[in-house]
Design brief:
The protein has 306 residues and is of the alpha+beta class. The protein has one domain. It contains 13 helices and eleven strands. Helix 1 runs antiparallel to helix 4. The longest helix is centred in the middle third of the chain and has 18 residues. Bound molecules: cobalamin and iron/sulfur cluster (2 copies). The site of one iron/sulfur cluster (SF4) has 13 residues, from helix 7 and helix 9. One iron/sulfur cluster (SF4) binds next to helix 6.
Length: 306
C-alpha cells in the first residue's frame, strides 16, 4: 500500500517537472550543528531562525503524527547570471519559485491524501531543515559550500519538502564526495565558508537579500557586480560544471530572466520609480526586498559606470 503511495507521488512529481524525489524518516534531525550555528550568532539578523528552532528540532511540532519527509528537487537556470544591470543569482532570475512550486506541491498533497496521508508542504518557507533531509533522503551530500550537491546535477536546484503522516519506503544517504576540494571556500569573496557551513554575517546573499541593516564597508568592498544573491561558491564547484556529452536539464521557462530586466542598465535600475519597480518585479522573488534595498545594492555599480 505504502509502496503504491510512493510510486504515485513519484509519478506525479515527475509529471509536474520535479527532477528527483527522495524520502527520509522524520526522526528528529541532528540539531547540534544548527544549535551551535545559532548560538554563535551566524544567523545574523534572521531572528525568525531562533523562533523556528524548536520546530526544526522536532518535526512533530510542524505536523502531528509525521512519519516521513519527502524532498523534491526542481532545476533552475545554469546560465551565467551576469545581465545588463549586474549579477542576479541564478535562482532569482525568473518567477518567484515559492509560488511556482506551491501549486505543484498542492497537487502532490492531494495525491498523498488519496492514500490516507495528511501533509504539510514547504519550499524555503517553513521550519524544516531542507538540506539535512535532502541528504538523508539520498539525493546528494552536503558540500563544503553548505549546499546539497547531486552527483549528476550539482547544486543548481530548489529543494521542496513534504511532511507526511504516511510511512513511505526510505532512501539511503550517499557518501560525501567533496574529497580534498576546497574550491568553494577559496572562491567565496568574503570568507563566509568554514567547516562546511556558511556564516550569514559574512555572506553576500544575506547582505543583498535578507539584511535590514546597511551593508558594512568590508562586505561592500567584496560585493563586485552582485545585486541580488551570490553564486560564487556554486560556480566554483566542479559538480556544477557541464561535462562533455552530458545532457543539459530542461529548465522551466518561468525561471528564465525576462527580457526587459536583462536589458536595463545599473543606472536605470537605481533610478526606478516605485510603480516601475512593481511593473518589473511583480511575480519575481526580487520584489520582496523593495526599492530602497535594491537601490542600495545597485548604486555602487551605477556610480562605477558613470
Ligand atoms: C537561512 C538560509 C539562508 C541564509 C543562511 C545560509 C546558511 N548558512 O544556511 C542565507 C540568506 C545566507 C542563504 C544563502 C543562500 N541560500 Co539559503 N536557505 C536558508 C534556509 C531558509 C535555512 C538554512 C539553514 O537552516 N541554515 C542553518 C544551517 C546551520 O543549517 P545547514 O547549513 O542547512 O545545516 C544543516 C545540515 O547541514 C545538517 N548538519 C547536521 N550536522 C552537521 C554537521 C556539520 C559539520 C555540518 C556542516 C552540517 C550538519 O544539519 C544542519 C541543520 O539542520 C534554507 C531553506 C530551509 N528551510 O532549509 C535555504 C536554502 C538552504 N538556501 C538555498 C540557496 C539556493 C541559497 C543560495 C545559493 C542563494 C544565492 N544564490 O544567493 C545561498 C548560498 C549560501 C550558502 N553557501 O549556504 C537553497 C539550497 C539548495 C541546495 N541545492 O542546497 C535552500 C535549501 C532553499 C530551497 N528550498 O531551495 N540561505
Ligand atoms: S553565497 Fe557568496 S558570499 Fe555566501 S558563502 Fe557562497 S560565495 Fe560566499
Ligand atoms: S567546490 Fe569542492 S568542496 Fe566545495 S562543495 Fe564543490 S566539491 Fe565540495
Amino acid at each position: 500500500m505504502m509502496n503504491a503511495a510512493r510510486r504515485a507521488v513519484e509519478y506525479a512529481a515527475q509529471a509536474l517537472g520535479f527532477s528527483a524525489i527522495g524520502v527520509a524518516p522524520a526522526d528528529a534531525p541532528q540539531g547540534e550543528h544548527l544549535q551551535s550555528w545559532l548560538a554563535e550568532g551566524q544567523h545574523a539578523g534572521m531572528e525568525w531562525m531562533l523562533r523556528h528552532l524548536p520546530a526544526r528540532l522536532n518535526p512533530e511540532l510542524v505536523l502531528k503524527g509525521v512519519k516521513s519527509v519527502i524532498i523534491l528537487t526542481y532545476e533552475y537556470s545554469r546560465e551565467d547570471s551576469r545581465c545588463a544591470p549586474g549579477n542576479i543569482a541564478r535562482y532569482a532570475q525568473g518567477d518567484d519559485y515559492h509560488k511556482l512550486l506551491a501549486g505543484k506541491l498542492a497537487d502532490l498533497d492531494e495525491t498523498l491524501s488519496f492514500y490516507g496521508g495528511t501533509q504539510r508542504c514547504f519550499t524555503d518557507s517553513g521550519p524544516v531543515s531542507e538540506r539535512f533531509f535532502a541528504a538523508r533522503a539520498g539525493l546528494g551530500w552536503i558540500g563544503r559550500n553548505g549546499l546539497l550537491i547531486r552527483p549528476k546535477g550539482g547544486s543548481y536546484c530548489f529543494l521542496a519538502s513534504i511532511l507526511t503522516t504516511l510511512e513511505l519506503p526510505y532512501d539511503t544517504p550517499m557518501p560525501n564526495r567533496c574529497g580534498n576540494c576546497y574550491r568553494c571556500e577559496q572562491a567565496c569573496p568574503t570568507a563566509a565558508l568554514r567547516n562546511g557551513s556558511c556564516d550569514a554575517r559574512l555572506c553576500l546573499s544575506y547582505w543583498t537579500i535578507e539584511a535590514k541593516e546597511e551593508m558594512p564597508n568590508n562586505i561592500r568592498a567584496a560585493q563586485g557586480e552582485r545585486i541580488y544573491g551570490c553564486d560564487a561558491c556554486q560556480q566554483a564547484c566542479p559538480w556544477n560544471h557541464q561535462r562533455p556529452g552530458a545532457p543539459r536539464p530542461t529548465i522551466d521557462p518561468h525561471l528564465l530572466m525576462p527580457a526587459p530586466l536583462s536589458k536595463l542598465s545599473p543606472q536605470a535600475l537605481s533610478e526606478l520609480k516605485p510603480e516601475e519597480f512593481e511593473q518589473l518585479f511583480t511575480g519575481s522573488p526580487i520584489r520582496r526586498i523593495g526599492v530602497p534595498h535594491l537601490r542600495a545594492n545597485v548604486l555602487p555599480l551605477a556610480n562605477n559606470n558613470e
